[in-house]
Amino acid sequence: MPATLHIRWWTIGLGLVLIVPNNYWVVYMEKVRTGPYPTTISIFANCVFLLVVLLIVNAPLRRWFPRVALNRAELLTVYSMLCLGSALAGLDMIPVLVQMMGHPFQFSNESNGWLNTFGKYLPRELMVTDVDALQGYYRGSDTLYRWEHLRAWLPPVLRWMVFIFALLFVMLCLSNLLRKLWVERERLTFPIVILPLQMTEERVPFWRNGLLWAGILLAGGIDTLNGLNYLVPSLPAINVKHQDLLPYITQKPWNAIGWTPYSFYPFVIGLGYLLPLDLVFSCWFFYLFWKAELVISNAMAWDTIPDFPFIREQAFGGYMAILVFLTWTARHYLKAVWQKAWHGAGELTDETEAMSYRATLLGLMGGLAFLVGFLWYYGMSPVWAALAVLIYFALTLAVMRMRAELGPPVHDLHFSGPDHVITRAFGTGALDGRSLALLNFFYWFNRAYRSHPVPIVIESQRIAGSVNASQKRMAVALMLAVLVGGLSSFWAFVHLGYQLGTASKFFQGIWFGNEAYNRLATWISSPTEPNPQANWAMAIGFGICSLLMFLRLKLLWFPFHPIGFAISGSWSMNLVWLPLFIAWLIKWLVLRYGSLQTYRRFEPFFLGLMLGEFIVGSIWSLLGMVYDLPTYSFWGA
């Protein structure tokens, strides 16, 4: 067994210090400016870039001051902490919550009648209700650092931080519960951690590989050229960003496909090469499958039914099928965990885990109970609170499994969380006003799952195991990152709000608030009944995904992966389906006419595509932020 790599406490402190400017950068990129949007893809470009910076700084330290230099475990611990902090500051997490905290009090008027419709149901202790304190936040040219502003924001922020910490602690418990099964027994591949592990490998000459540098120069060169063209339009460019096919498709029923962009993102091609062939095939195949559903629905006039063919609901059913399957396959392991936790019996050992299995189970049950109690305390019916929390963690487990096993580049599942499922399955008329108001707050961490923190937690534990580092210290580092990352995410958004104005100079400063409260107003003013078509779509999605899993077990050659079915109908797949097709075709040709050794020989080139785009794209973002200039955004807008 290799020697244990020690994680010194001061390096965890370094990670905490770096989280603050990193989260400021993420919020500035994704909310103030028009991208790039690094937290909407599975591997965060900003964190890879900062890892490169750490490696550059660490190289002379290793030579001249080896006692100060970071070892591999410490570099990867800081990287993991930055990833978790970025997830909390990401497009689909805390910035959405901040937009919701004061929005109805600022924007309620006679036209929308928000406060008359739902004002009495709002959990005001969790919101910023002081309209005077909100004026500068929305208009800008003000400062957060006035007592009346701090007094308005600090109490609800601290209450939400308690909720966020409990939410992430439950995720850590789930990860700790399943780590040994997925990492040591099933040996899942965790494709997303390949790049940081390779970058920090000390014995393999990763950085001396010519193909790696060819990939870096190709992708970085494209982004350099496009960045210069953005500043000087007379210069040439190579457009790899998405463009819509729909304007070229004008006849019915074919134009029912809707927005269908095509793109050639180099880093997606690079990531796709690392993924299992059947998953990459299934991603683009089922993307076209969903488009075919839209065309057929239009041709048959079925799309006169609102939301038909209920793609989001079918995908949710697929996620639930994946959850049921992984629970069934883990049943013997979970029984062994139970025996170890309560009777100290069996072959499992937990001495090297982040927590003992008894502490893990107690933490899991206590954390779930606390989350339900939190929602109940602020007005939600305990039955609906429990159901919403359970649905959320069911989806969380499915996302965690997807990333661990196959590392899909996207898993956003837009508008498919418990807030959507409950109101579709039972109708809004089944819930009282207070429960609807609290359920509406699920929007901030369920609008989409692109920057979901849970995969980062299990991947961080996988990284710790790969470098033989302490799981306990990694867990402490992650939970400290939650505290600092959460608070710095609130701070960055609100600080920039008072400085620039979320309703004036932010690109996305109030959009999500409008979405959330328009929805709540509709829920309360126009109660709905259960939607049987949506419920049937969930059942059909569950059945299709279950059938795909059954066929994969029976037929080794079966090419369709159920995870591809579940993730390919969401918004982000629009941006990556063609790069994934290109990656699939390249990988298929390499394996068909070469060998596994040939595939591995070319792997550094595709890692280089990712690195080149992440490095140059991050540099353009930083230059734009520092000099307040519009610059090229390599991903997203």
Record keyword descriptors for this entry.
2 strands; mainly alpha; about 625 residues; two-stranded antiparallel sheet; 25 helices
Helical percent range?
55-70%
Low-confidence runs of at least 5 consecutive residues: none
Sum up the overall morphology in one term: globular
Q: How many domains, as an integer?
A: 1
What is the first-to-last residue Cα distance? Answer: 47 Å
What kind of sheet is the major sheet?
A: 2 strands, antiparallel
Continuous helix count: 25
- Indicate the proportion of strand residues: under 5%
Order of helices and strands: HHHHHHHHHEEHHHHHHHHHHHHHHHH
Structural class: mainly alpha
Q: Give me the Rg, rounded.
A: 24 Å
Give the number of DSSP strands: 2
Mean pLDDT: 95
Query: How are the strands ordered across the major sheet?
Result: 1-2
Textual characterization of the structure:
The protein is mostly helical. The protein has one domain. Helix content is 68%, strand content 1%. The protein contains 25 helices and 2 strands. Strands 1-2 form a two-stranded antiparallel sheet. It starts with 8 loop residues before the first helix and ends in a 10-residue tail after the last helix. 50% of the residues are buried.
Q: How do the strands and helices of this protein lay out in sequence?
A:
Layout: H1 9-32, H2 45-64, H3 72-89, H4 94-107, H5 114-118, H6 131-139, H7 147-185, H8 194-199, H9 210-231, E1 243-244, E2 261-262, H10 266-274, H11 277-299, H12 311-329, H13 331-343, H14 357-377, H15 382-405, H16 418-426, H17 433-440, H18 443-446, H19 454-466, H20 471-505, H21 511-525, H22 532-554, H23 562-567, H24 573-593, H25 596-627
